[in-house]
Design a protein that fits this description.
The chain is 0% helix and 39% strand. By secondary structure, the chain is mainly beta.
């Protein structure tokens, strides 16, 4: 799945398949300017920062179990968000502090560092990397991902795929080649 935020005409947090199909709103109320987004892949939760409401909130992948992790002035100006174990990590764009927030107890907020000009944060750790299984977009014997001549996008599961073409090309009637 692909998760993303939108705060155009109607603010929301959405999800879709990697090929853009099955687009679903998972949060569309009591939300103003959702920006940074982070996933808890193990428990299937989506965390986001709303920079207008000064909140960090969480919801499950289906849009249920929503609650506010932390709200208020101390988290104003957040950008970037990452989740690892019991904590959320974020950057305060006003003073460039990296903050660690206990995702179960929002009163536990610590400033960890102040790097120059940080706007995004990521956690890289072996345990956070998903195991890769064989999937529909694996390279075939001819070197084509999923048998697609240009781009292979996973569909609703790891066995489904959709072929797409680079700009200026049209997908052929076989659904795999680009012309």
């Amino acid at each position: 799945k692909l998760f993303f935020t939108d705060y155009g005409n109607a603010a929301k947090v959405e999800r879709c398949d990697m090929d853009g199909m099955n687009r679903t709103w998972i949060v569309d109320s009591k939300i103003e300017q959702p920006t940074a987004l982070a996933l808890d892949l193990v428990n299937k939760y989506v965390y986001w920062v709303d920079i207008y409401l000064d909140t960090v909130e969480v919801v499950d992948y289906q849009g249920r179990k929503r609650h506010t992790v932390i709200k208020g002035r101390q988290i104003r100006h957040l950008c970037g968000l990452a989740v690892f174990e019991n904590y959320l990590y974020t950057v305060n764009s006003d003073n460039l502090n990296i903050l660690r927030i206990n995702r179960y107890n929002g009163t536990d907020v610590q400033s960890l560092a102040r790097p120059d000009n940080a706007k995004e944060i990521r956690v890289y750790q072996k345990r956070t990397q998903a195991a890769v299984r064989s999937h529909a977009c694996e390279v075939d014997p001819y070197g084509m991902p999923g048998g697609c001549s240009h781009i292979c996008l996973l569909g609703s599961n790891y066995k489904a795929r959709t072929c797409r073409c680079r700009t200026g090309f049209i997908l052929g009637s076989d659904g795999r080649s680009c012309k």
